[in-house]
Amino acid sequence: MQTETAHKRVDIHRNDTVKVLSGKDKGKQGRVLRVFPDKGTVLVEHVMMVKKHMRPTQRSKGGVAEQESPVSLSKVQLICPNCNQPARIGHKIHGDHKVRVCKKCDGDIGGKKSARG
Ligand SMILES: [Zn+2]
Question: Which of 4, 11, 7 has its CA nearest to residue 88?
Answer without folding.
Answer: 11
